[in-house]
Amino acid sequence: MRRLNTFLVIGIILSFILHSLSGSIRLLGADAGSPKITAVICIILVTFHVIITSALTVKTINSIRKSGKNYFRENIPFWTRRISGFALLIPLVIHLLIFKGTGDEAYRLVFFHTGRLISQILLIACLALHIITNLRPMLIGMGLKDRGLLSADIGFVLSVVLLFCCCAFCVYCLRWMAF
To answer: C-alpha distances in angstroms, 48 versus 29, 87, 139?
Structure first.
């Protein structure tokens, strides 16, 4: 189950990068193709990821109850990964509600005010925390021995993508406020 989860995470990262770049370019006013296909793929993968990690978390909690020992201080990185993932679901649902399609072929830009901007920046912050805390365990799950340089490279690429998304959300909000 953990191996499957690792492959899901790799798929989530790749589809997230494609979705966020095409969506950000669209928010900046250019047509970069439809981010909808990658969004659907990402949501499907995230759903399976949430199911697997929820099952693993329940299994961990049951083991803690059976043993009677809770080494919370020693397991703070584990609980940070779990809590940041579950906390990420709230801004993710808000993102889905804000940018849901209209059902027809033409994509309609939605009114974007300061509250929505804050919710999207919160999404980016939650994503950054979740990625940072889970990068090393993901690379371990992939069986990679030299994780230091690869971890830095992946972290750098994802940081640039998240910064680009944040800038696109800000520009999009400013464009709406100008009208």
So the answer is: 33, 17, 19
Say which residue the tokens 């992939």 belong to.
142
Burial class for 116, CB neighbours closer than 10 Å (0-12, 13-18, 19+): buried
Task: List, for residues 90-120, the tens digit of each pLDDT value.
Answer: 999 999 988 876 555 555 566 788 899 999 9
For residue 101, the SS3 value is coil
CB-based contact 110:95 (threshold 8 Å): no
Taking a C-beta distance cutoff of 8 angstroms, is the pair 116, 173 a contact?
yes
Angle, helices 2-27 vs 36-67, to 10°: value is 140
Distance from C-alpha of 41 to C-alpha of 35, rounded to nearest angstrom? 10
The first and second tokens of residue 57, run together, are 């978390």
Rg (CA), the chain: 18
